[in-house]
Write a structure and sequence with these properties.
single chain; 70 residues; little secondary structure; extended
Length: 70
């Protein structure tokens, strides 16, 4: 599995990297590769370090849609 790790600075933090164009017309980058955005670059090595099986969390998914910030 390919993973694109992005640590944007300043205004680049407002870009939805996963929504960038994919390899094929009409697709998104997130359809071709996993995208991880890290706001603190110094945290990347610790987050990507291998973990023992007993330390790993089970897979999870958070999906949000049609959010209203009124």
């Amino acid at each position: 599995c390919k993973v694109l790790v992005v640590s944007p600075d300043g205004v680049l933090g407002t870009i939805a990297f996963a929504a960038l164009p994919g390899k094929k017309k009409g697709t998104y980058l997130v359809e071709d590769t996993a995208v991880a955005v890290f706001p603190v670059p110094s945290a990347i090595p610790g987050l990507l370090a291998p973990r023992d099986k007993k330390e790993r969390l089970p897979p999870s998914l958070l999906v949000l849609g049609d959010l209203r910030y009124d």
